[in-house]
Amino acid sequence: MKKESRILLLGLDAAGKTTILYKLKLGETTVTIPTIGFNVETIEYKNIIFTMWDVGGQKVIRNLWYHYYHGTQG
C-alpha cells in the first residue's frame, strides 16, 4: 500500500524551488521562469506518493502562502 504526502515548497523568489521540483520529477535540471501562482507535481518514490506544491516567492504572493498550509505534511 502506498502512502501519500503533501509537500509545500516555500521560499523567496529565485531561491530554486521550481528547479528542485523538476529535478526530483524529471531527474534533470531544467530552465525555469519565475513562478506566478503555483506548480503542482506528483512524484512517486519507493512506497510514497508525494504531491508537491511549488508556490511563487514574490513579495506580493507571500501574503497568500498560509492558504496552502492546510493538509501539508512537510
Automatic annotation (TrEMBL):
The keyword RNA-binding does not apply. Transmembrane segments: none annotated. Signal peptide: none annotated. One of its GO terms (biological process) is vesicle-mediated transport. GO terms for molecular function: GTP binding; GTPase activity; metal ion binding. It is found in: Golgi apparatus. It holds the Pfam family Arf. Keywords: ER-Golgi transport, Golgi apparatus, GTP-binding, Lipoprotein, Magnesium, Metal-binding, Myristate, Nucleotide-binding, Protein transport, Transport. The keyword Membrane does not apply. Its main location: Golgi. GTP binds at G11, L12, D13, A14, A15, G16, K17, T18, G57. Mg(2+) binds at T18, T35. GO terms for cellular component: Golgi apparatus. Belongs to the small GTPase superfamily. Arf family. This is ADP-ribosylation factor. It comes from Rodentolepis nana. The lineage of its organism: Eukaryota, Metazoa, Spiralia, Lophotrochozoa, Platyhelminthes.
